Amino acid sequence: MMLDLIILGFHFFICFLISIAIWCGPKAVDLHSSSTGEAKAEPDGLIFVGKEEDIKKSQRITAKINGREIVVFYHGGKFHALDSRCYHEGGPLCHGEIEDIDGQACIVCPWHKFKITLETGEGLYEGINPLEPSPTPKWQSKGVKQRIHKVTSDNGNVYVSPPDLSVSFDSDYFADKYKNGGEIAMGEKSHSENAE
User: Fold this and answer.
1) Beta bridge partners of 52
2) Would you call 181 helix, strand, or coil by DSSP?
């Protein structure tokens, strides 16, 4: 009886290890995949991420460029692309709301409400200058924190330039951390989303 329990326990343990290996093991990851279809590199180095009409209709898509997840927004008649993970703690910007802040279109991170301009990648905060006679809150820049990507549209197609990694941004840390991890890596922070 005891031997049967040991064998059964061992069997379940082996099955558990196999399922973990399958779940976490190497994936057949296409280095240029997109949520709107197959993304591919063009001869001039640009990466095709989707059709203009599809992105305009959905207002945003995510795509991977060399394993790096980006989000492409269509807002105010323009396309914008940023790293999809917030520079602060890696929140999924693809789930954020776009707000107009002091005349600038900003994505608001759904985890901690950090505000990032779509145009420049600057982090914004509202602060006061205590030295003013009657301090009033004003929007100020924390500097460029989020990597933006150049977007080109041609013949109904939308392309993104590969990032220039010779210059670093705060968002690079989370872009690398979640590289090729997709939804598995996003699950690590799901408690943050639920807590807010």
Assistant:
1) none
2) coil
114, 36, 117: which is closest to 78 by C-alpha?
Answer: 117
Q: CA gyration radius for the chain?
A: 21
- Cα–Cα dist 49/39, whole Å: 5
Cα distance between the two ends of the chain: 50
Assign 16 to helix, strand or coil.
helix
How much is the mean pLDDT over the chain? Answer: 81
Is the distance from CB of 46 to CB of 152 less than 8 angstroms?
yes
- Residue 37, classified by CB atoms within 10 Å of its CB into exposed (0-12), middle (13-18) or buried (19+), is middle
Query: Over the stretch 102-154, which tens digit does the pLDDT of each residue have?
Result: 999 999 999 999 999 999 999 999 999 888 898 899 999 999 999 999 999 99
Strands (E), the chain: 33-34, 37-38, 47-51, 60-65, 68-75, 78-83, 97-101, 104-108, 115-117, 122-127, 138-144, 148-149, 151-154, 157-160
